[in-house]
Amino acid sequence: MSRSAGTDAPAKPLIVTDRDTLAAVLAKVRSDGQTIGLVPTMGALHDGHLSLVRRAVRECDFTVVTIFVNPTQFGPQEDFARYPRTLEADLQALAQAQADLVYAPTAEQIYRPGFSTFVDPPDVAQPLEGHCRPGHFRGVATIVLKLFHLVPAHVAYFGRKDYQQWRVIQAMAEDLDLPIRVEACPTVREPDGLAMSSRNRYLTPAERQQAVAVSRCLLHAAQLAAQGETRAAMMRQQMRDVLTRSGITRIDYVALVDPLTLTEVEEVHADTVALVAAFVGGTRLIDNRQLKE
After folding, report:
1. 119: which of 14, 142, 209, 250 fits an S-S bond (Cβ 3.0–4.6 Å)?
2. pLDDT tens string 201-251
3. Shortest CA distance to 42 belongs to which of 21, 60, 65?
4. What is the CATH number of domain 14-185?
5. Where exactly are the structural domains of the chain?
6. In angstroms, rounded to a whole number, what is the distance separating the alpha carbons of residues 270 and 266?
7. Among residues 49, 131, 149, 269, which one is catalytic?
8. 71's torsion region: left (phi>0), alpha (psi -120 to 50) or beta?
9. Contact at 8 Å (CB) between 258 and 237?
10. What is the crossing angle of helices 205-226 and 232-245, to 10°?
11. Whether residue 49 lies in the annotated active site
12. Among candidate residues 84, 75, 8, the one with its CA nearest the CA of residue 42
């Protein structure tokens, strides 16, 4: 595959839905000595996703983007049915980003009749999202491991916005000696600081204004740390205060954690990570920030 150059419209990536075609294409790519970059997504792409794709394109010879809304990582009361599906717009964006191949299987192709094997995720999956969304990381680890087998890439790229997810996948890859490097890329934000997310499109205009408090509470924690504050309990309370003053009262967690284990700390350090999960209206948003970036 060759990326378009010097044309008005970039060539659309090759779209593959079946594993046999995928295997044949990627076997040829690898036999030619090309490096493969993988960007797993659930579609509804925004510039955060596209920043991962652009990095893969810069660093690898051949870039694969997967688009699959994974049912096993959604809880029974979560938004699987209404999760945005915007394949045609995604393909146009991926053409602009110069992705080479899009793998977009159906749920029936990924989870064939009788499927019953799941990955027990590593310990880092237990707190935070693991507590609030039981079974979520079991579904994440399972689909990501399947994608790593289906797409034998050299490097996989994930957004740092889903910090715990990145650590779960990184730990799984290390524990299972998977022959792939897992890279975390910086969170991409709107001009007012809100982290880009596919779920932002659920927000009403008023909720969109309110949602800025999610990133603002993290910035406040970073400012406190920059001023020399080290007491985690006080900082967590101030983070909550920023949220509640904006009218955000349904808060799953505000946390200050060790960057590797994600266990709560009592005294913050430069590498401490602040995380938040809260509902703005009916939309659950998550974000994080290393205190001294």
Report:
1. 142
2. 999 999 999 999 999 999 999 999 999 999 999 999 999 999 999 999 999
3. 65
4. 3.40.50.620
5. 14-185, 198-290
6. 13
7. 49
8. alpha
9. no
10. 160
11. yes
12. 84
